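Spend some time on the protein that follows and explain the fold to me:
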Amino acid sequence: KLTATAHRCTLSRCEIFNSGLRDASNGIGVAVFGCVGAVLSDCHIHDVASDGVLFHPGSDSCTIERCLIENARQNGVGLAYASADAVNGACVRRVTVQNCILREIQGAAVSMFGGSRTRIAHNTIVNAGIRYHPALWVEPVRKGSQITANSDLELVGNLIILPVSAHEGAIGIGEGAVSG
């Protein structure tokens, strides 16, 4: 877990695995809570009961690069999950996921909820969306009548190879999910 005081923290060449074996409700590989400038590079995150990496609202200018994320029971990387904070101005901003391999992911390889300036570039995604969600999943945050869309989203040069049994396809963009 990286908290809001872990600014400019770098995790490099780490192996993170078996998270949530005893308690599946707490099985995130790396949870980023409002960090600024966090970098995960050259890491192997695998066999986690939840998301491989989860960015919570308030995280800003973070990068995941050259990581192998595999065997996640939920999403490979989750950005700005739906929360009350997201519609009060706090969202995930300027997060880049690049040059990573994400494979054997039960949910989305990358899920994006109401973020700003997210860049998903040059990743190889193999067998994602096995049980639910598309491989790349973009949704707005909805709270009552308020909707927070993803703004300035870039999806560039990602290779997506899906199993025949993929739940929803390669890319899913919900109504009102993108602006800018």
